[in-house]
Design brief:
alpha/beta; seven-stranded parallel β-sheet; 7 strands; globular
Length: about 260
């Protein structure tokens, strides 16, 4: 175990699988006390059985779209741990649909989970971090920077996360809160969400998609959750003390073109 996050307290949302799970495990390895939240309590408990031997994980049920729930979570963390140093706003959803066929219900649900919750989490964390500073990491996407015809609502939500992050960073800097706010923009990462999507697609479409990934990603393949977890670790640690309002793109070079 290293100590890049020794004595730091972190909250990670959407932590039952994928990027959140990998980030929680990485933070624990580096000495942090981690409160992991998810909407699915059973999946959350099951997911962390394999890393609980490293350090006890504090798992909390949370609907990130519930404003009162954010207040209760922050109150719990401050009561139990005395401070909050890191927030990773990771929880998110993808509902496929174009600008023409996306329903207003799907649009609003996507914004509520992917953007509104990031706003509420950031706002709550700023209040908790003001006494001693901290780091807020908002998980956006390369699709918050470039468009994709079949994910209109997702594009909009992640683009919102990108620019909201900069606004929050400027606010915290202007108030001298010593709170850094940054966004991470993952490319195509092999997560359970991706695997589940692939499982619902015809085999010929899966083959075409994987071939596209091989051809269009300069490094030749999808990334792994640990690649994003390492980016979160850097932004959460004191190594990034001069970094705020930044976009950390982790996409195998996909957006270079």
């Amino acid at each position: 175990m290293a100590d890049r996050l020794l004595n730091k307290v972190a909250i990670i949302t959407g932590g039952a699988s994928g990027l959140g799970l990998a980030t929680a495990a990485r933070f624990v390895e580096e000495g942090a006390s981690v409160v992991v939240t998810d909407k699915d309590e059973d999946r959350l408990d099951g997911a962390f059985g394999n890393i609980s031997n490293i350090k006890p994980m504090d798992r909390r049920y949370q609907d990130v779209t519930d404003e009162l729930g954010w207040s209760e979570l922050i109150e719990y963390v401050l009561s139990e741990y005395g401070c909050l140093d890191i927030l990773v706003n990771n929880a998110g959803i993808v509902i496929r649909g174009t600008a023409e066929d996306t329903t207003i219900s799907d649009w609003r649900k996507t914004q509520e989970v992917n953007l509104d919750a990031v706003f509420m989490g950031t706002r709550a964390a700023i209040g908790a971090m003001k006494p001693s500073g901290g780091s807020i990491v908002n998980i956006s996407s390369i699709e918050g920077m470039v468009g994709e015809a079949t994910t209109a609502a997702y594009n909009a939500s992640k683009g919102g996360v990108r620019i909201f992050t900069k606004s929050a960073a400027l606010h915290c800097a202007s108030q001298k809160y010593h709170i850094r706010v940054n966004s991470i923009h993952p490319g195509f990462i092999r997560t359970p969400m991706i695997d589940n999507a692939l499982a619902t697609m015809p085999s010929d479409e899966v083959e075409a998609l994987l071939l596209r990934m091989e051809n269009e990603i300069p490094l030749g393949s999808m990334g792994h959750p640990e690649d994003i977890a390492n980016g979160c670790l850097y932004l959460a640690s004191d190594e990034s003390k001069y970094v705020t309002g930044a976009e950390l793109v982790i996409d195998g070079g996909y957006t270079c073109r």
